[in-house]
C-alpha cells in the first residue's frame, strides 16, 4: 500500500506535494522540537468494504479507552513540565503530535508514517529534496506486534522510537531495530523474574499459557531458553498453550488445566484475551489454581470482580513500576491541543543522545538504556487481595530488579494473600519429593520434574530428599528398614548367651563333671579288682583325655579370636588322639593278656609291658602334635568375617587355613579309631573274663559312626551351625566312649560290689 508520495509537480522544482492524506484522530501542540506519540485512545476500528471502483473511505474508531487516553495525557503533561523548567531545555520549546492507533496495526502504521513524513500538502525543500522530518522521535507503540512492524521501517531512517509497553524480547535485536528504545523491561527479564518466584516457593511444575501473538510466543521462547541456560534444575512447565479467541480452543486449554497436577498457571496475555479465558474457567468451575500474571493483565481492573475473585484471588503478578506524579491530576482536567507543529534536530543525533540518557526519577529509580535500547529492568510484584467485604485490592508485595548479582527478588511473604483454605502457598509439582530411603527415577519421555520414587535396595541408603542415587553402606554396616541410614550389621557366632550355646556348654560341663566323678570313683576304688584289671593307669589316662575332649568343645563357643581358632583344633586333635591311643593300647593289652594266659604265652605280655604301653601312647600322641605344629606354622586357622551367608549379618567363624592340615588331623584320628575297632573286633569272642574287648568294639563303632556323619554335616552347615555340628560330634563321641567303657564298671563298683572280686573277674566276670 502506497501511503504517501513526494514528487516534483506543477509546483516549482524545490517543492514536494503529498498525493494523499490519512484522516487520524490526534492532538497537537507546536514547539521548536516536536515529539510524536502513538496511543490506544479507542478499542476498535472499522474498515469499510473495498469496491475497487472508487477511493476507499477512511476507517473509523469506536469504544473510548480511558487508560490509553490517560497515557497520552501523561506524555503531554511531561512535555509541559519540561517546558516549564528553564533548567532542562533553555530557549527550546517542546511540542507534540499524538495519534490514536485504535488498537489496530493498519491505523498505527498510518499514524507512524504520518508522524515521520508529515501531513502538510506541500513542502518547500532544497535542491537535494532532503529535509528534517516533522517529528524527531516517536513515543510508542504499546503493542509488541505494532512496535515490531513500525520500528522495522522507521529504523531504516534512524527515526527513534521509544515504547512504554512493548516487552517482546525480540525488540532487543539491535541489527533489526537500530533506533528502538523502551522504558519497560523486556519479557526476558520478566520471565527470569517469574522463574525466581517459582523457585522461591518451590513450584517445580507449572502450566504456561501464552497469547497467540508476538508477545506470547516470544515470552514462551524466553521461558524455554532461560530454563535451558540455567540447567532447569527441578523446574518444568506443563505445556505451552497458545490461544486466541476460538471457543473450542479455549475449552481444550481449560480442560487441560483442570486435569493437570500443576497448581500454578503462568499466563502471558493481555486483558482482552484473559477475559475470554476466564469465562471458560468459570464455566468449567476450575478452582484451586495459583495464577501468575504477566504485566499485560496484572493491573486489569476488568478482571478484579467479585465473580472472578474465587478463581483469580491471590494472583501474583509482575507489574510495571508505579509512582505518583505530582500535579498530573490537575493537568488531566485541562484539555489543551494545537494542530500546528514544527521540527528543529536530526534523527541520528537524537538516537545518539538517547543512548546516553542517564538520570534518576523523583521516585528514586535510575533511567538509562543499555546497548540494546532496553531500560534498566525493574518490576513490582503485585498480589490480588480479596477483602472480607467482597472488594478487591491489588497490593505491592515486592520487587524484582537488576543488580550486580543478577536478578534480585525481594518479597514480603507475610503480606501475600493465598486464595486457599490453608492460607499457605500451594504445592505445584509433577511428582512429590522422594523422601530419604528412596531415589528418583525419571519417567521416560516426560519432563525432568516428573519421576517415580524407587526404594533403595538392601544395603543401600539415601539420607537426603530427592536423591538421584542410593549409596552403598560400608562393609560392616547394613541399611536400616527405612533405608535412610546405615546400621551396624548383626554379628552371628555360636554364643554362650543363646539357647544352642547354653545347651552345648551345659553338656560339655556335664561330661567333664561325669569324668571327674568317675575318676574319683576309680581313685577311691583303685585297689578293687575291676579297677586294677587291664591296667588301671590306662583307665586314668583315658578318663583324663575324655575330660580334655569335653573341655576342648568350649573353645568352639564364643566369638572367634586368633588364639581360640588356633587352639580349638589343636586341642581337639590332641585330646582325641590321646583318648583313642589309650583305647588302642588298652585293646592290644586285652589281646596280650589273653595270649599270656595260654601255655607258653608269657612272652606276649613281656613285650607289651607298662613301659611299652606308656611309650606307645606317647609316640602316637606325638605324631598328632607334629601334625598340629606343621599345620599351625604353615597355614594357621584364623578368625574370619563372612558376609556371604547373609547380606545383613556378619558371621564370625574360624577358617581352617589349610584344608590339607585339617584333613590330615581328622584322618589320623580316624586311622587310630579304625585300627582300634578292628583289633577290638578280633577280640570280641574272647572268654567272658576278658569281655572288655566287646565294650571297646562297641564304643569304637559309636565313635566312627559319629565322625563319619560329622563330615557331610559340617561341610553343609553355614556359620555358627558348623561349629555347633563339630561341638555336637565331640560331645557325642566323648559321651559314647565314656558310657560304653566306664558305665558297666561304675555299675558294678557302685551297685553290684559283690561282683567286684578277683574270683568273679577270673571266673565269670561278665561285666568286667
Account of the 3D structure:
The structure is a single chain. With 768 residues, this protein is an alpha/beta fold. It has 4 domains: 15-48 and 56-182, Rossmann fold (3-Layer(aba) Sandwich), CATH 3.40.50.2300; 188-323 and 376-415, Response regulator (Rossmann fold, 3-Layer(aba) Sandwich), CATH 3.40.50.2300; 438-488, no CATH class; 499-762, Rhopdopsin 7-helix transmembrane proteins, CATH 1.20.1070.10. Helices cover 41% and strands 18% of the residues. The protein has 20 helices and 29 strands. The strands form 9 sheets. An 8-stranded mixed beta sheet has the order 12-11-13-14-15-18-19-20, with helices on both faces. A 6-stranded mixed beta sheet has the order 2-6-3-8-9-10, with helices on both faces. A hairpin with a 5-residue loop joins β16 and β17. α14 (562-596) packs parallel to α17 (659-682). The longest helix is centred in the C-terminal third of the chain and has 35 residues, at 562-596. The chain is rod-shaped and about 165 Å long. The protein starts with 14 loop residues before the first strand and ends in a 6-residue tail after the last helix. Residues 1-13, 336-343 and 764-768 have low confidence and may be disordered.
